């Protein structure tokens, strides 16, 4: 075979489906087994949250008369109560399924708030620059010097929160990272020629921001919109564990562990199962977010 | 270098002023009335009014802020509503335990993260690499309170290897440090991996291999020395990431540090203590960040700050 023919063969091979580097983000994502598992888990948690009333074996608040042993201890996993019961004889599996609602709702809303605040402030500061940019950077330093969890605990403890306030508090202390990334990207985007061209054509600031800058920021926002949920789910669980998150009658994963804390040596399943639920949910958003980051960044798409 | 240092210090001072302003505003907007908290629940209105005057709560806001800052500068963080002692003494008596916990946490996360990251980078793309990376994410996603409780259950209660919480000997510090450092270990594994992967692609590494050095010598003498610098210089930043975990971990293990202090103060709405801990942590975080920034050019001669 002549060298030319070989080159053609190589080119064909590259073009053919088998050896090509996947081009669309979705096809890259599909090749990442960790991301697929993560997507599966997220789908499962979403189903659990949506279908909790249908699939839960019992009412999560019902204290079963046969839910405690003869001497008043919670029942271990197995038997009639698949994952065992808690200190009041309530079915743990049902409480976990309903707990998925709190976890997801607070996680998604809190992260939405964080991404929203971070984008708004980051884009504005990055576009206006000058003293606004300087002020923004110092404000980021200030926020980062505050211990986020301590601040959130203090706020949540004093505000006696509802689910929405918990989500808002978490968003308020978590927007910093998004703000930082968005600010940096806006700063470099705003100096590109296409922005200059848009301005030369008479587009106002609002139009440049909405029509020309935001579309370029979408991949970043998508990545943080996923990745950040991993943090906010953990954050909500920590607040509920410390007793300043979602209030007790509503089952939440961190709250279940908080209620069982004094009894965990006798009933470790009351810590293990909610702990695993938190771990898998947070980990899945983490894996999918990282895979999205790789998939959406063309330079990192073909990494070894 | 001197100019960079001065600039960085000035920046930190600006942030400190912001921190004092924000904590002051928090104190002001919080619904708990300080005078009533000091006087106690059943005090009569005259006493409350007298205390309000004494604390200067009847003065205009800017004057109160000036007063607040001047007290802070003298190291006076106010008095606890509940325990009726100086907050500075209260925080001071707890700082040692937290510092000890953090130091142990840093040791653990480095011991866990660096070797894992090196193993992943050397066998890039292998099953080991993928396993380490998923484990690193799992470490970052694991809820610390559940990890701590389960470690207590298995290692202390079942096997009896460690005490069931408390403070004192080196055995007491192991499980809290592991719990605190798990997430950081995952983070260091990822940073170590990407730093080493980058260095391993450099020309001087290829040269080293080409001239016949053993892979071990190339890795440890040439590649690692350069890859470790950016990683190790980040240790100062851990103060910030640990500060939140400290509250959870100290509450799980009954560790008598400032996290536990903050937690107890929050339940009592003991606002001066809460803000004292927030201020102290902010100071520690700023110092850690400054340390990280200053370490970098010293450790890596290629970095020059103008």
Would you summarize the structure shown here?
The complex is a heterodimer of chains A (304) and B (306). Chain A has 304 residues and is mainly α.
Describe what this molecule looks like in 3D.
The complex is a heterodimer of chains A (304) and B (306). Chain A is an all-alpha fold. Chain A contains 13 helices and no strands. Chain A is elongated and about 80 Å long. Chain B has 306 residues and is mainly alpha-helical. Chain B has helices spanning 2-29, 34-39, 45-54, 61-73, 87-122, 127-141, 144-158, 170-200, 203-210, 215-232, 238-253, 258-267, 271-299. The longest helix of chain B is centred in the middle third of the chain and has 36 residues, at 87-122. The model of chain B has no long low-confidence stretch (mean pLDDT 82). The interface between A and B is large, with 42 and 50 residues.
What topology does this entry show?
The complex is a heterodimer of chains A (304) and B (306).
Chain A (H helix, E strand, L loop, with lengths): L2 H13 L9 H6 L2 H23 L36 H37 L1 H16 L2 H12 L3 H12 L1 H14 L3 H8 L4 H37 L11 H8 L8 H28 L1 H4 L3
Helix pairs in contact in A: 3-4, 3-12, 4-5, 4-7, 4-8, 4-10, 4-12, 6-7, 7-10, 8-10, 9-10, 10-11, 10-12, 11-12
Chain B lengths: L1 H28 L4 H6 L5 H10 L6 H13 L13 H36 L4 H15 L2 H15 L11 H31 L2 H8 L4 H18 L5 H16 L4 H10 L3 H29 L7
Helix pairs in contact in B: 1-13, 5-6, 5-8, 5-11, 5-13, 6-8, 7-8, 7-11, 8-10, 8-11, 9-10, 11-12, 11-13, 12-13
Class by helix and strand content of chain A? Answer: mainly alpha
The largest sheet of chain A, given as strand count, sense and whether it forms a barrel, is: none
Q: For the CA atoms, what is the radius of gyration of chain B? A: 24 Å
Low-confidence stretches of chain A: 1-19, 300-304
Oligomeric form: heterodimer
Unreliable stretches covering 5 or more consecutive residues of chain B: none
Tell me roughly what share of residues is in helical segments of chain B. Answer: over 70%
- SSE order of chain A, as H and E? HHHHHHHHHHHHH
Count of DSSP H/I helices of chain B: 13
CA(first)-CA(last) distance of chain A:
30 Å
Beta-strand percentage of chain A?
under 5%
Task: Tell me how many strands of chain B there are.
Answer: 0
């Amino acid at each position: 075979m002549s060298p030319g023919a070989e080159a053609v063969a190589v080119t064909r091979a590259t073009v053919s489906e088998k050896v090509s580097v996947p081009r669309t983000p979705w096809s890259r994502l599909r090749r990442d087994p960790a991301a697929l598992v993560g997507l599966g888990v997220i789908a499962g948690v979403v189903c659990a949250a949506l279908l909790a009333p249908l699939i839960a074996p019992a009412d999560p608040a019902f204290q079963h008369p046969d839910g405690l042993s003869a001497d008043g201890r919670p029942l271990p996993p197995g038997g009639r109560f698949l994952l065992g019961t808690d200190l009041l004889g309530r079915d743990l599996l049902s409480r976990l399924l309903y707990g998925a609602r709190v976890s997801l709702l607070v996680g998604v809303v809190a992260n939405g708030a964080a991404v929203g605040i971070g984008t708004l402030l980051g884009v504005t500061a990055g576009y206006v620059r000058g003293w606004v940019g300087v002020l923004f950077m110092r404000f980021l330093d200030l926020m980062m010097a505050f211990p986020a969890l301590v601040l959130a605990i203090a706020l949540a403890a004093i505000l006696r929160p509802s689910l929405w306030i918990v989500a808002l508090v978490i968003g308020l202390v978590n927007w910093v990272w998004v703000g930082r990334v968005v600010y940096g990207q806006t700063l470099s985007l705003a100096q590109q020629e296409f922005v200059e061209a848009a301005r030369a054509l008479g587009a106002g600031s609002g139009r440049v921001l909405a029509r020309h800058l935001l579309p370029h920021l979408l991949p970043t926002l998508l990545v943080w919109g996923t990745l950040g949920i991993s943090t906010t789910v953990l954050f909500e669980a920590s607040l509920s564990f410390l007793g300043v998150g979602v209030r007790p009658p509503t089952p939440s994963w961190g709250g279940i562990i908080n209620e069982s804390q004094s009894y965990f040596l006798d009933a470790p399943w009351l810590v293990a199962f909610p702990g695993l639920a938190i771990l898998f949910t947070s980990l899945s958003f983490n894996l999918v977010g990282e895979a999205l980051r790789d998939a959406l960044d063309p330079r990192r798409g073909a990494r070894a | 270098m001197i100019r960079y240092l001065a600039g960085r210090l000035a920046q930190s001072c600006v942030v400190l002023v912001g921190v004092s302003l924000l904590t002051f505003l928090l104190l002001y907007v919080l619904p708990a009335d300080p005078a009533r908290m000091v006087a106690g629940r059943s005090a009569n209105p005259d006493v409350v009014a007298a205390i309000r005057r004494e604390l200067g709560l009847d003065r205009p806001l800017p004057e109160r802020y000036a007063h607040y800052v001047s007290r802070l500068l003298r190291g006076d963080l106010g008095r606890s509503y509940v325990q009726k002692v100086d907050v500075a003494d209260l925080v001071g008596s707890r700082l040692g335990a937290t510092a000890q916990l953090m130091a142990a946490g840093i040791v653990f996360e480095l011991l866990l993260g660096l070797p894992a990251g090196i193993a992943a980078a050397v066998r890039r793309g292998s099953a080991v690499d993928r396993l380490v990376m998923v484990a690193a994410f799992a470490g970052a996603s694991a809820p610390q309170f559940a990890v701590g409780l389960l470690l207590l259950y298995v290692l202390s209660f079942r096997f009896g290897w460690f005490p069931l919480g408390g403070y004192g000997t080196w055995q007491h510090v192991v499980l809290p440090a592991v719990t605190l450092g798990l997430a950081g270990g995952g983070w260091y594994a990822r940073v170590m991996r990407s730093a080493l992967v980058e260095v391993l692609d450099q020309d001087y590494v290829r040269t080293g291999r080409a001239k016949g050095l053993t892979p071990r010598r190339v890795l440890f003498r040439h590649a690692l020395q350069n890859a470790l610098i950016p990683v190790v210089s980040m240790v100062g930043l851990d103060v910030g990431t640990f500060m939140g975990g400290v509250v959870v971990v100290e509450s799980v293990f009954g560790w008598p540090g400032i996290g536990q202090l903050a937690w107890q103060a929050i339940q009592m709405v003991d606002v001066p203590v809460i803000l004292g801990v927030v201020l102290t942590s902010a100071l520690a975080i700023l110092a850690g960040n400054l340390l990280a920034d200053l370490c970098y050019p010293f450790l890596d001669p290629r970095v020059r700050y103008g």
